[in-house]
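Because discrete structure vocabularies remain unfamiliar, it helps to consider an illustrative case, giving the amino acid sequence and backbone structure tokens:
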Amino acid sequence: GASALTLKINFQGCPSVSTINVLLRNTSSPYAVVDSVSGIGGASSPCVINFTNAVDGTPYYVVVKSVNAVETWSSGFATFSGGAASYDFTSALSQAYLSNQILKLGIPSIYQGDANQDGFVNTADVILTYNNSAAFITSPSTDFNCDETTDLSDVSLAYNNATNFVQKKRP
């Protein structure tokens, strides 16, 4: 039987839903992955992610990944009961580990700009995004605002997050 996690997230630059990968991790070091499932999420809309390895009564960290987002860990735990649990990253910045989110239009949102998925938004991401923009190449990894064009607005997001040293934060 599957266990259903109702998850609510928002992305910094993308106003629509997109593909996400959601991991359940143990709450003690080394925080082993218990399950990993792909789904569609974002736009502050609840999505349901079904896990096959979740156990009722066991707390888990919830980790959200996306092709261009900064890996984001929950600050609290999701615990399944009767095969169901929920976690809402959009209710407060503090729902992410060490409040590693940004307010976008008043909604706590997952940082974007990590085009190469190394856990940091830095010069490498800015250059990758700029090069795609200059060559008129659109890639999900560099189209942060989901408008199907990598352009200077995407470069700007990556640059701003790089100058603010945005990176993944985990226990």
